[in-house]
Each structure stands twice: as C-alpha cells, then as structure tokens.
Write a structure and sequence with these properties.
The complex is a heterodimer of chains A (375) and B (415). With 375 residues, chain A is an all-alpha fold. Chain A is 66% helix and 0% strand. In chain B, the strands form eight sheets. In chain B, strands 3-2-1-11-24 form a five-stranded parallel sheet, with helices on one face. A five-stranded parallel sheet of chain B has the order 13-20-14-15-16. The chains are: A mainly alpha (375), B alpha/beta (415).
C-alpha cells in the first residue's frame, strides 16, 4: 500500500454523490459500520474502506471489486452510523455505477438511469407494437374480431410466433449478449485488482453461490431490514416461476404445436398464475418495506424505483389482461395486453442497464469472491 | 467607574466544582452568593473522581480548599437537597423560589455514625453508582461537606427512622422535618448544573448496558477510589476477580448523532488516566484502548505519549460496535482494526465504556433558562458555566467559573 501513489479522482466522488451517495462526506471513519455488518467477511471488511475510497474517488478500488456486491444493503450500517453517512445508500450508488461502468453501449446505461429518457424508453416498444398492429390492419380496422364460437384470444391481436417472438427473441439475445459483455469486462477488471487467484476451479464457487442465492442465506443475516429478505425471496421465486411458465408455453407452441389460450386448469396456467400473484405480493412487500424503513435506511433512488415500477407494471398488466380476457371484455383487454407487452419489453430489453442487472453482477461478484478466496 | 455600594447578589445553581469556584471567587470579591445544590453534599462529579489528570492527584484536596473558603466566608450561603422551582423578574431583579427537601438530620449532627449503625434499612449507594449499599441513614461519602448525615425517606419506610432517632445522642434526627420554600432576590444567576454520564443502556451497539462486567468510566473512578466500593481495588463487579485484561471503549455515546452529537472532551484523557490506575495497581495487567481518534488537546499530548510508551497498553484504531458476554463473566468486544483493515474480536475481564457527558439540561431544564441541545445558553443576567454550558475538564471548568463570577458581579454592579 505505502509504495503506491494514490490518485484521488474528485469527479468520481461527485458522481457517486449525484448517484445517490449524497451523505458520503459525512463519514469520519469510525468503522461502526463494518462491525455491525453481519454479511461482511472479517478480513478486509466493508463498508468502512469503501466509504474512504468513495471520499477519495478511488474508482478502480470501488468498481473493480466484488465487495460492493457482497453488501446486500441490510442497512444495519446506515441505522447505526453515528454521522448519518448512510454507507448502505453509498454502496447502492456505487453498485449502480458498476452496472453503468461495465455495461455497453454506455449511452443505454445513461438513458435507463435518467428520468428525462423515461418516455423515450417506453415509446420504443410502444412504436414497435403499434407498427405490428398497423401491418396487421388492426389500427385501421379496430380491435381484432373474435370469430364466432371462439373465445377471446390475444393471439388474434399478436400471433405469437410471428409478432411476439420476432420481437422478444432478439430482445432476449440482445440482453444476454450485453450481460455477457458486461460481466466479462467486470471479471477482467476484478482479476486485474486481485491477480492470480490461488483457486482454478470456478464450478465450486459457482455452485456455492447458486446455493446461497436460492436459499437467500446471506440476505437472511440482515438485521434492521430483515423483512426485505422474505420479500425478495418471493419476488425471486416468482421470476423463476415465470421463466418456467415461458419455457413451457414455448414448448407447447414449438414442440407440441399447441396454441393458447390454455384452459385455466392447465399446468402452465397454474405455475403462471401462482408466480404472477407472488410477483405482485413480493414487489408490494418490497415497496412497503422501503416506506417503513425510509427513516432508517433511505427511500432509494430513481434507479431503484424505475425497476420497482416496471416489475409492478409487468405483474399488474399481466394479471389484468388475463382477467379481462376471461371476463370477455375485449375493449379493455386488448389495450391491457398491449401495455403488458410494452412493460415486458422494458423489463428485458433494458435489463443489462437497470436494477435487474444486479442479479448478474451480484452473482458474478459472489462467484469471484469465492474464486479469489475473498469470502 | 460606575458602581453602586450594594454588593452583587448572585444565585449559583449547582454546587459542583464550577459552582463552588464561581461562588468563592465572587464572594471573595465582595458579592453575596447563594448556592443551590440538589444533592445532600457539595462537590458534584469531582467528588466522585479518584484522581485528576494529568497530575494524578486526588481531587478532594482541591475541593477541601473550596469548602474551607465557603465555611469562612459569610458572603456564601448554600442550600443542599434543594432545587430552583421558579424564576421571575430580570437582570438585577430576579425573584427565585428554592425548594428545600428535608434532610431529617439537623445541624446538631456530629457525623458519629450511630444512626447508620442503628438503621435497619439499606439503599443503593448512588454516590458509587449503585455498586454497593449504604444504610438509609448515611453520610454520602467520608469527606462529604457538610459533614452531616441524611436519611433517605424513600428507603426508610414507616417507623424505620425510629431506631436512628433513639441512637442519636445529640438530638440531631428530626423525622418531622418538612419541605420548605425559600424565596430570594438576586441580580444574576449562574447555571452550573453540570453533567450526567451518558446512559449506556441507550447504546444498542455496546450491549445496551446488559453485558456484565461492562462499566462506565465514572464507575471506574469509584472502583479505583480509596473511598469506593472496593476500597480502591480494581476488581470486576460480577465475581470480584482482580482485573488483568481490560478494554476501554472510546466514544461510548459521544460524537454520535444517535446519542450525543458532540465530543465530550474528557473521555480520552479519562481513559488514559484510568489506564494508569490499572497499570500502577497491577504490573501484569494488559490494557487495550479502542478509539476513533485519541483526542488529547494541547499539552495533554504529553500524557498520551507517556501512556503510549507502556508496552502493556495497546491502542486499536476502530470503534467498538459489538459487546457480548462470554463464559466466566468475560466480555468480548468487536471492532475493525483500521490499521490492519481486519475485524478483531477480543476477550477481556472487564470493559470500560468511556461514556460521554450529557449536560444536565438534556434531562431536566431550569425555569427561566434557555437551552440549546441540552446545553444552557447565556442570557441577560444568566451565566451558564462549566459542563452545563459545554463539555470541559476540571481545570477548564475552574477558568470558566472565574469568568462566570466576573460576569455575574458585573451584571449586579450595572443595576
């Protein structure tokens, strides 16, 4: 350490402050935070050192480190901080900046995190789906007519193979590729900071990480905001349930040539509906916890709320579209389905830049920490 | 020089070191001074100290000089067991009501201890922070001024006072004594109500006061004092084991917006001083001091250097934020050693919390006095001094008290 010349980057400090770490300069390095933290390793614990790095603008030490992601923002540190420096919020801001730093193209990262571009982000899928309606003639002829003797069906509005998958398959590939690029950069940057890890095997750390994520075993150590772990777990499993639903539905269409709408008794509807309800319950709990803990841990930033609103949008429009279809109210059902598609597009297409990316970066950081014997 | 022949009349609220100093300085300059003290004795927190820093001399000698100056000066009156209940009027013309609580012992008392021997009831000894007990008829401490016993009516129910009264050869016990109100007129008021040790029960990160063998720095003063509960032996409370390994936890409540937002000024020096108590008593004892910054302002730096030179004393930069009880009454503390950057967990025989100074005004405020965050604020004719106004040590309190005396005299002369 002592033979290194540190280069403080005060611009970077200002960026963290702008990203939601307003309080970072209040820190006077007492290290109450690292002691009250139940998820930090004992060796080189966080977040005290991160607070110092943030004050000095030591960008590489902060962004190319797994530690900011080992933090689960329990906010015990923030609650007990003697100065109101809110280490939990500061690390949250740094995590957001990590996503922006390593994701590409970088202008996408800026747009997703700036409320000025909110309308544009929603306008893109809206235009795409309006265009699809236009080429099918629905814009000029009105909502699709339901053939006699048939049930109301959203595939009449957007036939799945041609109009849904041609949009969402490329979106999924785009997101997956951007995620891959991002974590590749992130891993390389961390490796440069923690060179020559003594462990060659990545599979064991990966398996351990997956087990930790599935059980939420780290998250459950949180003190002040332990309710967050339950809420997050519900939301997390709802996403897994919805992924299973999507896979099943795709296999119905592509493997068994069996098109919807499926009867409510079908397994795909069961999994989908349970997951959809769980999603709404989970995200509602998350919002309630945030309101409840606002005083102690802060209310969160635009970055957090953008993601929360999108998840809400996906869940609500999805459930309502189904209910309206079953109630056979096409005049409301079709617009609702349209809105659902827009929200799903926003969720996935912008995932590499939104808070959704935390699942990929946190997993990468947790694997790297184990791989490099950090924790 | 504008001056009247009448002496300045000054009310000093609080008979601790600051109040006493103001009183004798003002009285010896010709003022008429009335001291109001809530305790049955004068001397305040300083009377509870074992030694002063940095000279390491016992405070009682300084107090005794002041007591003597009060005794021999007709310009000073004092009321113990008393409190100010109302203040009206203004500078040069304050009307103050003082309520005097009954002592149940009159001036005939010779401090012979016969009443205490006869007394059937006991009470927790607040002078020693409840670490031992006294009889319900008691002398607050051996050098208490006035040397006059007092009966704790709360601890002495029904006819518990009768054996005392019968045991007293001097007719000094008066169980019929009632509270009375004294009204006085003064020109100015000096607030010298001092401070209380911050209550560790409120500090969640330091075990909420529930971990055995975790004591406050003021309790440490009493443990080390020859007139304390152990006769000066630094033994831990749970089992009386002589302390071999001890930790000091600095900033226990101080510099913390959840507790006391300010630096209490004295705690670093107090812990260094108490380190010397232990090291003098036990050449094998090991001391660890956990700190954020060691604050030893001005020439006190030398005192820090002196303690740092002791190989048995280690300084760990990192605030303790976890205290847990372990087996056999030992205590574990956790901190980040910031110089190595690793979390450390260490076990000690006893832990001293360097609790901060909570100004008296944070708990109880005087009529007619304004406060800022618990600290008394100056006003026309109102002169706060000592720790009721700002955290300070004894020598600074002496200087501050002299300055308050001068301001108070001046306020009286201006009328």
């Amino acid at each position: 350490m002592s033979d290194q010349i540190l280069k403080p980057d005060l611009e970077f400090t200002k960026e963290i402050i702008a990203a939601g770490g307003e309080s970072l300069k209040k820190c006077y390095q007492c290290s109450t935070c690292t002691v009250v933290c139940d998820v930090t390793p004992d060796r080189k614990p966080f977040p005290r050192k991160e607070m110092l790095y943030a004050q000095w603008g030591l960008k590489d030490k902060l962004l190319a480190s797994p530690d900011v992601w080992l933090c689960h923002q329990c906010s015990d540190c923030t609650a007990h901080c003697p100065r109101g420096a809110k280490p939990g919020e500061v690390l949250g801001a740094v995590r957001k900046m990590t996503i922006q730093e390593f994701s590409s193209p970088s202008f996408m990262g800026k747009m997703v995190n700036d409320s000025k571009f909110l309308l544009l982000l929603f306008a893109i899928p809206t235009i795409i789906f309006l265009f699809e309606l236009f080429i099918q003639g629905h814009l000029t002829n009105g909502i699709p007519r339901i053939p006699n003797g048939q049930l109301m069906s959203y595939s009449l509005m957007f036939p799945p193979t041609l109009y849904i998958d041609t949009v969402f398959v490329p979106v999924a590939f785009f997101a997956a590729f951007m995620f891959f690029k991002g974590i590749k950069n992130y891993w390389a940057a961390m490796s440069a900071n923690y060179p020559a890890p003594p462990r060659k095997d990545v599979i064991t750390p990966l398996a351990e990480t997956v087990r930790e994520i599935l059980t939420h075993s780290v998250f459950e150590k949180c003190g002040v905001s332990k309710d967050r772990s339950i809420a997050h777990k519900i939301l997390f499993y709802s996403f897994i349930g919805l992924a299973i639903t999507t896979t099943l539905a795709a296999s119905y269409i592509y493997v068994f040539d069996y098109n919807g709408p499926y009867p409510q008794t079908n397994i795909v509807k069961w999994i989908g509906n349970v997951s959809g309800v769980a999603m709404l319950i989970g995200i509602t709990m998350i919002v309630m916890n945030r309101i409840k803990n606002k005083e102690k841990v802060g209310a969160g930033s635009y970055f957090d709320w953008f993601f929360i609103v999108v998840v809400y949008g996906v869940g609500l429009t999805g459930m309502l579209a189904q209910i309206l279809r079953l109630a056979n109210i096409p005049v409301l059902g079709y617009p609702m389905y349209f809105a659902h598609l827009v929200f799903v597009f926003v969720l996935f297409a912008y995932a590499p830049y939104s808070k959704m990316a935390h699942m990929v970066y946190r997993t990468t950081a947790m694997v790297f920490a184990k791989y490099s014997k950090r924790s | 020089m504008q001056s009247s022949d009448k002496p300045s009349r000054i009310l000093v609220i609080g008979g601790g070191f600051s109040g006493l100093t103001t009183a004798v300085d003002a009285a010896e300059s010709g003022a008429e001074v009335i001291i109001v003290e809530k305790n049955p004795h004068l001397g305040g927190r300083v009377a509870q100290l074992n030694k002063y820093f940095p000279k390491m001399c016992p405070p009682v000698c300084g107090l005794e000089i002041n007591f003597r100056r009060i005794k021999t000066n007709p310009g000073v009156q004092f009321h113990t067991l008393s409190e100010v209940t109302s203040v009206s009027g203004g500078p040069g013309n304050y009307d103050v009501a003082i309520q005097k609580h009954p002592r149940y012992v009159n001036d005939k008392c010779t401090a012979c201890n016969a009443c205490a021997e006869a007394c059937p009831a006991t009470r927790a000894n607040d002078f020693n922070f409840g670490m031992d007990k006294t009889k319900a008829a008691y002398l607050p401490f051996n050098q208490a001024f006035p040397q006059q016993y007092v009966i704790d009516a709360k601890a002495c129910k029904k006819d518990c006072g009768t054996p005392c009264k019968e045991a007293c050869k001097y007719d000094a016990i008066d169980l019929e004594m009632k509270a009375e109100t004294v009204n006085v007129k003064v020109d100015s008021i000096v607030v010298a109500t001092g401070w209380n040790p911050y209550d560790a029960d409120r500090i969640e990160t330091l075990g909420s006061g529930k971990v055995p063998n975790t004591i406050s720095n003021m309790e440490m003063e009493r443990l080390a004092a020859p007139n304390g509960p152990t006769g000066g032996a630094i033994n831990r409370p749970s089992d009386g084991k002589p302390v071999q390994k001890i930790a000091f936890v600095q900033c226990a409540g101080s510099r913390d917006e959840n507790h006391l937002a300010f630096c209490s000024y004295i705690c670093c020096m107090a812990s260094l001083k108490q380190t010397l108590y232990i090291r003098e008593q036990n050449p094998d004892a090991e001391v660890s001091i956990f700190y954020i910054d060691m604050r030893t302002p001005g020439r006190y730096e030398k005192f820090l250097n002196q303690v740092q030179a002791d190989a048995k004393v280690s300084f760990i930069k990192g605030k303790v934020a976890k205290i847990e009880k372990v087996k056999n009454g030992d205590v574990t503390v956790t901190a980040e050693d910031m110089l190595t950057g690793d979390k450390v967990e260490k076990t000690f025989d006893m832990v001293v919390l360097a609790t901060g100074m909570e100004p008296a005004g944070a708990l109880k405020q005087l009529p007619g006095v304004s406060y800022i965050e618990g600290f008394a604020a100056p006003g026309a004719g109102i002169f706060p001094t000592g720790c009721s106004r700002n955290p300070m040590d004894v020598s600074k309190s002496a200087q501050d008290a002299t300055s308050a005396a001068l301001k108070a005299i001046h306020a009286g002369k201006g009328r």
